[in-house]
Every structure is written in C-alpha cells, then in structure tokens.
Amino acid sequence: IVQVAAPVFNPAGGSFTGTQSVTISSTTPGAFIRYTTDGSNPSETAGILYNSAISVATSSTLKAIAYAAGMTDSSITSAVFTITPILQVAAPVFNPAGGSFTGAQSVTIGSTTTGAFIRYTTDGSNPSETAGILYNSAISVATSSTLKAIAYAAGMTDSVITSAVFTITPIVQVAAPVFNPAGGSFTSTQSVTISSTTPGAFIRYTTDGSNPSETAGI
Description:
Elements: E1 8-10, E2 14-16, E3 20-25, E4 32-36, E5 48-49, E6 54-56, E7 60-67, E8 77-83, E9 93-95, E10 99-101, E11 105-110, E12 117-121, E13 133-134, E14 139-141, E15 145-152, E16 162-168, E17 178-180, E18 193-195
Parallel strand pairs: 2-8, 10-16
Antiparallel strand pairs: 1-3, 3-6, 4-5, 4-7, 7-8, 9-11, 11-14, 12-13, 12-15, 15-16, 17-18
C-alpha cells in the first residue's frame, strides 16, 4: 500500500520576530491534512482539517499528517516556530499635551522606554531617527506650532509619532496712557489731556500719587 507523502510546512519553522502565515502541503494529489498547534499528534480524526494558511502569532509546535483513501497515512511532520517580537519603543508624551495658551509654553517630551532617544520637529513634518531635533531639554514654544516627536532605541522598533498642537494667542496689552503736556515746571494752571493709542480704552487717573487701577482712581 502506498504511503501518502508527508506534509511540508512553509516556512519550515524557525525563529521569527513577527506573525507567520504558514501553509501545509503534500505532494500526494487529493490528500487531506490535519494539524495541531499544541504539540499533540494529529491523525485522521484528531486535529484541525487544513484548508488555508495558518496564522502563527506566538511560539508554537505545529504537527501535521496527510491521509487519503486506500493509502497509508503519512508520517507526522513537525515544525517549531519561535516568535520573539521586536519590542516597540513607548510613544513620546508631551507635557503640556497641547492646547490653547496665552503665553509661551515650556514643553517637555518623555518616553517610558528607558534609554530611548527622542527627536522632534516644530514645523509639522515627521521626525525619524535621522530627521528632526534631538531632544535634550524643555522646548520653549512661543508661537502657534505643531510639534511631532518619535522615540527610538537600539534593538527595538521605533515608536509611533506623537503630535501636539499648540495655539499661542497672547493677551494684548493696552497702550500706556500719555499725558499732554508730559509734566514739568509751569507758571500757570495746565490743562492736561490723557490718551491711549488703544482704541476704546478706558483711562483712570489719580492726582495724589496713589496708583490707579480698573476700579481705583477718577
């Protein structure tokens, strides 16, 4: 009695850094294949009937058997898959995280991955291991900007790019009052005007040397 050709795994097993799509085949036309992923032995009645590629995302021992009517079952083929993902560097975090402000902001960037390097941009372009400014201290953001940052470390996958939008809208200061005349020594009563170049500004004044405010003064 002819024996069914043993199953063949593709890839045949080994060490990988990511999920593998594994196909199983037999050169015997019309043969059925059953497989296991837990190291147990498949048979004509045990295991999963193969019909399409298998996704192997974690370290596993695959075993497969092929069989066909009127033939001796194949030998069992094994394949060991060691999946050791390359770790990804933790994404950078901005502090503050962005938003609307009325003055310059001192922005820090950090990553929880120990020893990671960070590069950043302030013009909205994407940083990389070779593009952007190497971060080493707080950044002063004085005008509206889009900051982007990436973190990277040897032997690890680069982090995702983190973005933060800073909208800086300074509070405009009212122009200081101007006296006319500006002061001095005179021999007669003076008619003094006070003005500000800021349209619509209100002016309060004092004549006793005390400081005026929005609520104090004439």
